[in-house]
């Protein structure tokens, strides 16, 4: 997903450490303007446990992704949610169902996890590009707002977006 | 030609490939014994040797080739915990693996990814490709059962 999003960059810096990739993005957000973002990307393996506290430090938003062809990735979201709430309570979170190119029928399914936690839900394909850019732009916007006003106002915005998503 | 299954034999180091050609019902078997295997550290070279000798089985099949490489690694190091060719990715928790192992499994998954991929150089490429799925009627996923 990251690589698909970064296709508009001439070059992207990527630092790889154990179990973690960090991507730097400098670009124009249609609503915010020039932005400079660091994306921290983990495949979610347990061996990543050691770096978790630094991973969450100063995080402004999170994208939780599962693979619609592998149930285990969906089931594991609960574990990640608990951890996220421990380290970065209150940051905006989005839920993404990836690989819809491999199983298009997933787009006619509703999932309890995002509903339970009031998360905006997206369907995407990193392979053919469907909705990837949209997801990152929305995440950047949520993170930006979180940084501007970390208090209640921003939670209201999140719920606004959730409501828009659910009613549309 | 269609590869049906691989077998490993550790002593002597051997990869056995069961396969079938398109117009035949009968299974055939290739037995590839590696001499001097423990002294050979170049896994990729060994894989290339096999690929050359069985090009009709592996040509153009990226995931099979990746599987072969992982099998040769396993032959080299029997303590590798996982036979990638046998795992059911739908239920196997990859988060228990190391990054290197995940990368190997991912090459196996790459087939679908590459098949459906639209790159910058493809005709229909749109950077911000949006599709609205909210309007599709939803039924509850059985993953929540």
UniProtKB/TrEMBL annotation, chain A:
<dbReference type="InterPro" id="IPR001806">
    <property type="entry name" value="Small_GTPase"/>
</dbReference>
<protein>
    <submittedName>
        <fullName>RTW, Ras superfamily GTPase</fullName>
    </submittedName>
</protein>
<dbReference type="InterPro" id="IPR005225">
    <property type="entry name" value="Small_GTP-bd"/>
</dbReference>
<dbReference type="InterPro" id="IPR027417">
    <property type="entry name" value="P-loop_NTPase"/>
</dbReference>
<dbReference type="Pfam" id="PF00071">
    <property type="entry name" value="Ras"/>
</dbReference>
<keyword id="KW-0547">Nucleotide-binding</keyword>
Automatic annotation (TrEMBL), chain B:
<keyword id="KW-0963">Cytoplasm</keyword>
<dbReference type="InterPro" id="IPR029412">
    <property type="entry name" value="CEP19"/>
</dbReference>
<keyword id="KW-0206">Cytoskeleton</keyword>
<protein>
    <recommendedName>
        <fullName>Centrosomal protein of 19 kDa</fullName>
    </recommendedName>
</protein>
<keyword id="KW-0970">Cilium biogenesis/degradation</keyword>
<keyword id="KW-0966">Cell projection</keyword>
<keyword id="KW-0969">Cilium</keyword>
<dbReference type="Pfam" id="PF14933">
    <property type="entry name" value="CEP19"/>
</dbReference>
<comment type="similarity">
    <text>Belongs to the CEP19 family.</text>
</comment>
